[in-house]
Design goal:
Helix content is 18%, strand content 35%. It is α+β, with helices and mostly antiparallel strands. The protein folds into 2 domains: 3-116 and 160-244, Jelly Rolls (Sandwich), CATH 2.60.120; 258-333, Acetamidase/Formamidase-like domains (Endonuclease I-creI, Roll). Strands 1-5-17-7-15-18-19-21-20 form a 9-stranded mixed sheet. It is globular. InterPro entries: FmdA_AmdA (IPR004304). GO terms for molecular function: hydrolase activity, acting on carbon-nitrogen (but not peptide) bonds, in linear amides.
């Protein structure tokens, strides 16, 4: 990171953004959505998100009424401007200086559990193999914040790695209101379980201010998210936003403290996987100055090509490449 960006980050303010009927975007990404918060590049937002469900569904699955969050009741009762998707998102956040063609760097500084439960559910016509499960089922799953596990069943504990399934910016204005379910060039419902605290997401900007939305909190998830939900819950995140004029992307990209991540998105999973590989090759050629031939070979011998999700209409694939591969090259250059 350039020195000017480090100084900017150190001096940046922190904002608090609650989830209320006035700050909720139910089921869409839209360049015409009015901002609920305006911030400067380099500033941080502690943003609250809600479980994507309704009190009736949660109570129907056995959750005591007293454990339903009051904000969820308020939003379900008062938000009428909703759809076409079903996710309850917080936003959008307007980042000053962001313009189409830029990249919005989102540093995920912290992701915290907000409630002591999650749910998992599948429907009669959703998920990856609905032909095998022609009915709907929903389960409330206790979360143990101290042990950071979900008590899935007696004797079955799932480690928690909280992340936001949906983080994105406004799509191009010509796209109008976009369904929150399929991911796209704007990011959105990526459902990438690597985007935990300490990771950074890079999103191509399509509208003034970027207009960032976030939600679909997961306490954990498996790659593929095969029944259409993970450990769905409410989360609080601390996110820092930096406008990058020096980067230009066509698809979202990410990195963790130990790895680089490229992404591919397409209704055809094979084509999504091809794009993930092409994006990593482009990254290696541009940022690591490898030839395309060498980049392709490195992806094959050291890159892990994974399925992100197969249930959101637009399928997702991603490639992970360890940063440690480049340690010796850095030392030779004196970096």
């Amino acid at each position: 990171m350039a020195l000017s960006l480090r100084v900017q980050a150190q001096k940046a303010a922190t904002h608090e953004l609650a989830i209320t009927p006035a700050t909720a975007a139910w089921g869409y990404y839209d360049a015409a959505a009015p901002p609920v918060l305006r911030i400067k590049s380099g500033e941080t937002v502690r943003v609250h998100t809600l479980i994507t469900s309704t009190p009736a569904r949660l109570e129907g699955a056995g959750l005591p009424a007293a454990q339903v969050e009051p904000n969820l009741r308020d939003i379900v009762e008062h938000v009428t401007n909703k759809g076409p998707g079903g996710h309850i998102l917080t936003g959008p956040i307007f980042v000053e200086g962001a313009e189409p063609g830029d990249v919005l760097e989102v540093r995920i500084q912290a992701v915290e559990l907000a409630i002591p439960y999650a749910y998992n559910a599948f429907g009669a016509k959703s998920g990856f193999i609905p032909e095998d499960f022609g009915y709907a089922k929903m389960r409330i799953i206790p979360l143990d914040k101290k042990k950071m596990v979900a008590h899935f069943l007696p004797g079955v504990e799932v480690p928690l790695r909280p992340f936001f399934g949906s983080m994105g910016v406004a799509p191009p204005a010509a796209s109008g209101r976009v369904n929150s379910a399929p991911p796209g060039i704007h990011g959105g419902n990526l459902d990438n379980k690597e985007l935990v605290a300490g990771s950074t997401l890079y999103l191509p900007v399509h509208a003034a201010g970027a207009l960032f939305f976030v939600g679909d909190g997961h306490a954990g998830q498996g790659n593929g998210e095969v029944d259409i939900t993970g450990l769905e819950t409410s989360l609080t995140g601390t996110l820092q936003f930096i406008v990058r004029k020096d980067m230009h992307l066509t698809l979202p990209r990410a990195e963790t403290p130990t790895a680089y991540i490229s992404m591919g998105l397409n209704e055809d999973l094979t084509l999504a996987a091809k794009d993930a590989v092409r994006e990593m090759i482009a990254f290696l050629a541009t940022e690591k100055h490898l030839s395309r031939d060498d980049a392709y070979m490195l992806c094959s011998v050291a890159g892990d090509l994974d399925v992100t999700q197969v249930v959101d209409g637009t399928r997702g694939a991603h490639m992970i490449l360890a940063k440690s591969l480049f340690g010796k090259a850095k030392k030779q250059k004196g970096n």
